[in-house]
Amino acid sequence: MTFSSLPQDHQRRTASRRADALMDEDVARSEFRPGDQDGEQIDRDERAALRRVVGLSTELEDITEVEYRQLRLERVVLVGVWTSGTAQDAENSLAELAALAETAGALVLDGVIQRRDKPDPATYIGSGKAQELRDLVLESGADTVVCDGELSPGQLIHLEDVVKVKVVDRTALILDIFAQHAKSREGKAQVSLAQMQYMLPRLRGWGQSLSRQMGGGGSSSGGGGMATRGPGETKIETDRRRIREKMAKMRREIADMKHGRELKRQERHRNKVPSVAIAGYTNAGKSSLLNQLTGAGVLVENALFATLDPTVRRATTPSGRVYTLADTVGFVRHLPHHLVEAFRSTMEEVGEADLILHVVDGAHPAPEEQLASVREVIRDVGAHRVPEIVVVNKADAADELTLQRLLRAEKRAIAVSARTGLGIPELLTWIDTELPRPAVELEVLLPYTQGALVSRMHAEGEVLSEEHTGEGTLLKAQVHQELAALLEPYMPAARR
Ligand SMILES: Nc1nc2c(ncn2[C@@H]2O[C@H](COP(=O)(O)OP(=O)(O)OP(=O)(O)O)[C@@H](O)[C@H]2O)c(=O)[nH]1
Ligand SMILES: [Mg+2]
Question: What domains does the chain contain, in order, with CATH numbers?
């Protein structure tokens, strides 16, 4: 049941209850004094430093907590400012915002777009439109407004003042989803760091809001406001410093974890196992493709950002060569820059790969745009020299003309369906031909006691012929340098 089906007065009552709740929060907030900040509190925060930051919200609560609360998005109205491009572009963007909001667990009640040259510096949408938005919020019974962009702290506050419910922006929403889905220690730490980075400049906003509240209604901005602003500002300075310290600590920890991952990657490199990275827009079907290609049970969800941590699997080509296949975090348009930074780690993996499978959702209304925005990030992380195969996924659901158009525009592309398996054998064969060829061609006669070496030649090299003789296995193969060194004693020349 939706709110719009309820009688008007119920809606109004609900709205006023919400307003009361908002005031309660304000009261709670104004009870804060710098003196509350005792040693025990800091200690508790310190111990919680690596705990997952559950989410960010503009819910006006305790400004000293760095572990901001869950967004608890429930009933949201979306609002976008359409500055350039076609009406279709603007609608796609809002549709994506709706998908993001649903992923975060919200119920999307409505969405509006305003055509403007640029967002209003004070309230994001124009002030007249903000009033209309207020009506829409009341009418639909929404408790949150989600803006399709990154808003300044001032814009968030001013818009919140008009619509009287919490206002969050696209960045906070994405951060919230990231926080809900990050699984590994590193992933969680990176999300926390990004959240703190997002929060830092916004503390001033909370402070202003606090002093305004404490200044009391009706009075001018001077007087009581001034008297209470002093301690408020000090408090914010303390918070800022603590957040900065935490961020520094977290950066060090991430650097350590990164070192561990680096070692693993070097290990793979040393073993010369070719690597394939699956990249692509969020929800394109990357995890599904990984499952199809390897039979691995990786989480597949019809939600954006189902995957946040790189998942690496071993896989085999039809000719029997072993390679690694890495699933990656989905890209999304307008990914705030500090988020790109935070998630660079998984993208570095892409840069190190021997081949990128760039998955695009063929059933999406604007697949070309997704291709372009993912490529931008690939360039950003210096992975543009890695060969790429464009995998147009969801061919079972895509429209034939769209598929044709994509395959014409992209020279190195293949249409597949990770769901039905269509095109998967062809893709596997293609991967086989794209993987780097091993370096040394040799012939060895391995005694039957050296079965392990035979297996390695199959897994890491390319066996051209194999013959079982009275003395052992006679193999002709191409292998990498290190394996060649191990095989040296068994080369005919060495047996002389
Ligand atoms: N019809 C159809 N749906 C597909 C296909 N492949 C994936 N899907 C669906 O698309 C949704 C997203 O799939 P995922 O594999 O989780 O996508 P992803 O790219 O890994 O998404 P993130 O990890 O969130 O970035 C799921 O509902 C899948 O069932 C396909 O070939 N055809
Ligand atoms: Mg995934």
Answer: 3-250 (3.40.50.11060), 272-434 (3.40.50.300), 440-495 (3.30.70)
DSSP state of 76: E
User: Which 8-state DSSP code applies to residue 348?
Assistant: H
Ligand 1 atom closest to Cα of residue 300: 16
Per-residue 3-state assignment (H helix, E strand, C coil) for 7-60: CHHHHHHHHHHHHHHHHHHHHHHHCCCHHHCCHHHHHHHHHCCCCCCCCCCCCC
Per-residue pLDDT at 393: 98
| Most confident region among 142-156, 276-290, 405-419 by mean pLDDT | 405-419
Does the structure show a pLDDT above 60 at 221? no
Model confidence pLDDT, tens digit, residues 323-340: 888 887 777 666 666 676
More confident residue, 72 or 443: 443
- The single-letter DSSP state of residue 4 is G
Q: Which ligand 1 atom lies nearest to the CA of residue 302?
A: 27
| Closest by Cα among 404, 394, 383 to 279 | 383
Mutate to test the pocket of ligand 1, among 181, 283, 298 (most ligand atoms within 8 A of CB): 283
| CA 446/CA 479 separation, integer angstroms | 15
Q: How far is the CA of 489 from the centre of ligand 2 (A)?
A: 46
Dig out the tokens for 476 from the structure: 């002709």
The DSSP-derived string for 152-197 is: PHHHHHHHHHHH-SEEEEHHHHHHHHHHHH--SHHHHHHHHHHHHH
Q: Which long-range contacts (CB under 8 A, 24 or more apart) does 340-343 make?
A: 340/377, 340/380, 341/194, 342/190, 342/191, 342/193, 342/194, 342/197, 343/190
pLDDT of residue 481: 78
How far, in Å, from the CA of 327 to the mean position of ligand 2? 7
Which atom of ligand 1 approaches the CA of 301 most closely? 16
Please tell me the distance from the alpha carbon of residue 98 to that of residue 107, in angstroms, as a whole number.
9
C-alpha 382/C-alpha 388 separation (Å) is 13
d(CA 416, CA 396): 8
Element (H, E) at 466: strand 462-468
pLDDT greater than 90 at residue 361: yes
Specify the pLDDT at position 467: 94
Q: Which residues line ligand 1 at a C-beta cut-off of 6 Å? A: 280, 282-288, 300-302, 304-307, 330, 393-394, 396-397, 417-419
- Cα gap 326→190, rounded to integer Å: 19
Q: How far is the CA of 77 from the centre of ligand 1 (A)?
A: 26
| Alpha-carbon gap, residue 311 to 288, rounded angstroms | 12
Question: How remote is the CA of residue 418 from the centroid of ligand 1, in Å?
Answer: 8
Residue-level pLDDT at 220 = 37
Report in angstroms the alpha-carbon separations of 424 from 285, 415, 430. 13, 9, 10
